[in-house]
Amino acid sequence: MAGARIGVRLGAGQARAALVGGGDIRHARCHSGDDRVLARMLRGLAQGTPVRSVTWDVSAELDPASAGSPVASVRVMPRPPARGLGSGHPSPLLPALVRRQADVVGGHDLFGVELATLDIYEVFRTAAAAQAEGIGALALTATGAVGCPHHELTAAELVREAFPRLRVSLSHQVGGLGLLDREAATVINAALLSRAEQVVERCVQISGRLGASTSAWFVAGDGGRISAERLRLLPVLGLSATGAAALTGAARLAGVDDAVVGLAGADGLSVGHVRDGLPNVATDRPGPGGVRMAVPQASLTPMRGSYAATASAFALLAEHDQHTAVIAVAGADPDGDARDQAATDRARTAAARLPSTSVLVEPPAELAAIGAAGTEPSAWLDTVLYAETSEVLARKQAAAEQRALTLVAESGARLGSERVVSSRALSLSFLRSGSYRLVVRAGGRAEDDA
Amino acid sequence: MKRAGRPSEQLTVDELVRYGPLGHAEMLVGENLARPVSRVALISDLDQVRHCGPGTAVVLSRGLALGAWAVESALRLAWERSAACLVSPAVVGLDQATAQLARRMRLPVFVVTGDTAACALDLAAAIASPEAARARLAARCAELFAERSNARGIVGVINSEVPGVTAALVAPDGHVLAGQASVDRAEHRVQVDVPGPDGRRWAELVAATAGPSSPTWAETVLLILRLARGPLAASVARERLEAVHGAERGRAALRALFAPPDPGPAAQAEPAGRDRGDEGRAVLEEALGWRVDGRHVAVFLRSGTPLDTAATGPGVISAWQEVIDDLPLVPWETGWASWWTGEEIEVEQVASALRRHLARMRSPIPLSAGVGRVAEGPEGLRESLSQAMLAAGVTVRDGPGTVRSFDELGFRVLLASLSQPELVGSARMVLADLLSAPDGPVLVATLAALLDCANSTSQAAARLGVHRNTVLGRLERIRARGVDPDRPDQRLALHLACYALLPEVS
Amino acid sequence: MTGRSITVEDVPALLAGAEFFSTSAAGEGIEFAGFWLEDILARTGPVELVTADELDPDTPCAAVGAMGSTVAMAELPPSGEEPLALARSLGGRFGAPLGAIMPLNAASVNALHPVAAAAVLGLPLIDCDGMGRVFPLIHQTTYELAGLSLSPLAVVSAGNDSLLLDTGSARAEQIARSIAQAAGGWLLCGMYRTRVGLLREAAIHGSMSRTLEVGRLLREHASDGATAQALAGDPPWPEVASWPPHARPGDGESSRRGTAPHEHLLRDLMAATGATVLGGGRVVELGPSTRQAGTVYPGNPTSMVVHDHDSGRLIRLEAHNELVLALADGALTAAVPDLLCLLDRGTLRMTGPERLTVGDQVDALCVPAAPVWHSVHGLGLGGPGAFGFPLRHPRQEGR
């Protein structure tokens, strides 16, 4: 078994790990509180086999409700909301995280035209007040930043120079189109910065004890994997990673690249799709606390009901899907190493309703940990462009695809393994004809892939 | 509008594709091309399709290049009106779904990149005067006939270029020389005689049409057949000439191959050079493509009557080549030689193949054949050929079409080869009484057959094709003339005498 | 419907109904407007929803609606002050303040803007609209058909650029469209300033109620159905442990046996809206979207094909901002002004070409437009011809 990969899921005080390599899968479990215990478990799992990478699913460690620190949020718009009308967020999570909210004049339109000059004095005043109140992080969200991040970058530079201790999250690095959703993501991101710092540091250290050649990675909510540096900067990307990892793991164990996957838990069945080895993603999924974040997350549709009910519903979905149907046991016994019995029963009931071409996966270890071990670099872009002709569109689209491929390469993809998974130019309704929203997804094979 | 003629007077979609204005259009869907086209409608408003009659070629103007939906709408309306085909300008998004729909409706769809109005005009011109269009077809065929060098190619032109027509070149005995065998059984056909090099009828060029043809269309097809006649006759003559030339070269080469190496000064002068055998081999293998090395079985074809092989040769050779075009046939002594080559080749296999081929061969003279033994290399080939010749000497007596092998005949081949002049003289004297009978030759042949069959009258009767009583009667007359085939001490002499006389009496 | 009001609790249903009547293409990403409206109503209190008959016929009123891109609006949300600028412009021009608000169209994000405007201005909202669906141009209204004057057109941008345009309907449309492009991608408009008494003939009555009703239906199915998801606000796996209080474990079986959840929803939608199902099945083709030069219409036309599962027919849907035509095997079966909608079988939500990929399962519905749209003038303003499709509406076939 030369060059194995380990996946670890941290959550509920437990660490569940899976080692994948050479067609063999081993599993281990321990309490996650003690670094030495964790390191010992990983070494025991490796049994002397060289481990190329450890990929961590830390989404449970990054719960913004419990792990978030208060932030100051700056929204840059040409005209601040009058009397605060319509600026509130329906989720109690955000008001809980935002200690100070400020509206600053500035911003660009979708195509990068400046709508108002940035009020740098207001930025400065807000940052000063935040620092004085002991707030550690600032979330900066400018309208139009996805097309032109100029105002966010200017504001960030100003804040870093004047208040070096204040950490800044910029919305254009965090999410896609949609100011409110992106602002929510930026706030959550800023709130998680210090927690992410600790978690990442710890995971990198523990991984390092397996040897100098073992690298540490983190599962992202879109089912790809990101580097420690990127998670430190953008912890929001590491949220809701468990479902994505489980989808990836289920498809891997079933031996298919494209599948409709049912993840059976004790309480229900979650349905997702895997294409080209990567989970289908959406940006309009509710994230932590029901907050939508304009950040790509694996699409999982929960179905509840009796075993028979979820089985018949999934059978119906599978019947209409052209890809292989995969049912996987996703729940693990909370206190032991065994698979959750209820989840297993649910999965078997569902599998019994499916045609013989479908696959039942009863994983020899925690599914999300297996999935984490197998994650590969990926990248995602969401932007707007204007193209007079289809030639210009093709050129601009190719440029955006190139940018996505570069991001993949930066996430540790083996050179030449980068590929565009999907690339769609969608005509924007009710804008000048020739306006497109471009959504690009790219993936690659990790450097440590055996 | 042109008065609607009988449907078959009209050009079909296929014709318009083959030699009409649709030839340059991209065929998105090629279903149901045999439909006749009665008129053309250039459509600038979808509603106009509703007024098109059956058989219309519906051409969408550029103004309707609005999207796949417009083409599909027109397609649907055209289908409802039983249109013959739809011609569309190039449209963004015209795709598999549109093609799928057209295929389900069995409506041909063409996409024109240029101006569809120009295409509509061309279509209208072609449809208004099918004769002009058909004349163009005939001209095109004539042009292609000239480019083809053999009968197969010429008949092929008709089959590929003339829509709805299948053609074949058929020998007087019904044997299909080239083209589609099904033509012979077709209900609606047109035909012309094709003369051979001697000017006499050699074959018939037959064309079958898909349905009852209109007079004009039948005329067009007939015109095309006539146009093919000249090139066909020329190609036959050319093929024969080539065959004879090739055969002559083959004979020379074979002779060289079989010749013993020159022991004389020439060999010394060219110690490392090729001797005549090598030269012959080179001609056979390289120029004629025949195989000299390997495992052979030689065959020999001959006629019962002595004849001038130079005169009948071309006919025999071309008849052979019509049946088997990949095996040599070389004029050789009193007949023609050939051989099968192959790792697995067996005598029986060759004999039965040859039997089959002889039955099909349209030879100008009746032929019988002998088959030699299996042999290796050029030396073996010569031996096998000698055996085949001996065997053929026997089969020629058994009647045309007979094929027997050297092994099968055994020592009888020896007897058959004994027609030396002295022997013939002695035989005449020995059997003088028998020969002087009014039916002397018949009695000699009967006696030979009886001796061949170990005096079994029934076998001899079968061999001769007469009733056993006839043989018994003849045996009585033979005995009456003092010849007793039962006397052991006379049997061999009698047998020899019969064989010596047989070539004369048969 | 005396004494009805629209409260914070009604917003999710309003949003779902707004998506339904947006004829699929225009409904993308308007959830942000739901949060926005909830926040406004939470601060201002409910909006009074009245019928035109309940008001004094002399009450001055005007239609409120946004023009431009919902994607742009999501990126540059309204400040909440826009209705004030509109009311100032129109009130100043006529010398009398507005007494009521009516929706330009009770669909897509424009089902929410008039509610917000009424809330911010403290005015009643008339239960009617001028489209009964989404049309791309602000003068494609029954108000226009009835002879009400669109202009003066008051527009205001999210940057508070404000303008009062005095010109003809089509000109106002064109000029405002270029302002929208330059001012951040969308504008809030106040137009058809009139008196309530004139709405009797000019408006489609009960539109807001209908939107709410259909929205409630969609939400019930989305949360009841086996694939309940985002609309209910449930977080995805693995935090799905808790049952939603209204879900009864296992009881879905009996009602679902043999039929898919989408079939129940379709049946209910047909009953509620008079819709017909054109067909349903796999999306087999999503056409290229190419810019069209020289048109008054924004956006790009595009096309998609659904393979009808039951009949094997190919249903081609032509979209230009919204769904415009449906052809089954080349035969025109439905067209504007009737509404064409796509239901995603997987999520039980309305969807559109922009959110679909080849292989998705959808059902295509056709909801008949208000009768006035089927008149000669109605079809002239909002029929296939108005969208550049030289086709007769299926209803004209007999004429």
UniProtKB/TrEMBL annotation, chain A:
<protein>
    <recommendedName>
        <fullName>Hydantoinase/oxoprolinase N-terminal domain-containing protein</fullName>
    </recommendedName>
</protein>
<dbReference type="InterPro" id="IPR045079">
    <property type="entry name" value="Oxoprolinase-like"/>
</dbReference>
<dbReference type="GO" id="GO:0016787">
    <property type="term" value="F:hydrolase activity"/>
</dbReference>
Automatic annotation (TrEMBL), chain B:
<feature type="domain" description="PucR C-terminal helix-turn-helix">
    <location>
        <begin position="443"/>
        <end position="499"/>
    </location>
</feature>
<dbReference type="InterPro" id="IPR042070">
    <property type="entry name" value="PucR_C-HTH_sf"/>
</dbReference>
<comment type="similarity">
    <text>Belongs to the CdaR family.</text>
</comment>
<protein>
    <submittedName>
        <fullName>PucR family transcriptional regulator</fullName>
    </submittedName>
</protein>
<dbReference type="InterPro" id="IPR025736">
    <property type="entry name" value="PucR_C-HTH_dom"/>
</dbReference>
<feature type="domain" description="CdaR GGDEF-like">
    <location>
        <begin position="281"/>
        <end position="392"/>
    </location>
</feature>
<dbReference type="InterPro" id="IPR051448">
    <property type="entry name" value="CdaR-like_regulators"/>
</dbReference>
<dbReference type="Pfam" id="PF17853">
    <property type="entry name" value="GGDEF_2"/>
</dbReference>
<feature type="region of interest" description="Disordered">
    <location>
        <begin position="258"/>
        <end position="279"/>
    </location>
</feature>
<dbReference type="InterPro" id="IPR041522">
    <property type="entry name" value="CdaR_GGDEF"/>
</dbReference>
<dbReference type="Pfam" id="PF13556">
    <property type="entry name" value="HTH_30"/>
</dbReference>
Automatic annotation (TrEMBL), chain C:
<protein>
    <submittedName>
        <fullName>DUF917 domain-containing protein</fullName>
    </submittedName>
</protein>
<feature type="domain" description="S-Me-THD-like C-terminal">
    <location>
        <begin position="263"/>
        <end position="391"/>
    </location>
</feature>
<feature type="compositionally biased region" description="Basic and acidic residues">
    <location>
        <begin position="248"/>
        <end position="259"/>
    </location>
</feature>
<dbReference type="Pfam" id="PF20906">
    <property type="entry name" value="S-Me-THD_C"/>
</dbReference>
<dbReference type="InterPro" id="IPR010318">
    <property type="entry name" value="S-Me-THD_N"/>
</dbReference>
<dbReference type="InterPro" id="IPR048350">
    <property type="entry name" value="S-Me-THD-like_C"/>
</dbReference>
<dbReference type="InterPro" id="IPR027479">
    <property type="entry name" value="S-Me-THD_N_sf"/>
</dbReference>
<feature type="domain" description="S-Me-THD-like C-terminal">
    <location>
        <begin position="171"/>
        <end position="230"/>
    </location>
</feature>
<feature type="domain" description="S-Me-THD N-terminal">
    <location>
        <begin position="9"/>
        <end position="166"/>
    </location>
</feature>
<feature type="region of interest" description="Disordered">
    <location>
        <begin position="225"/>
        <end position="259"/>
    </location>
</feature>
<dbReference type="Pfam" id="PF06032">
    <property type="entry name" value="S-Me-THD_N"/>
</dbReference>
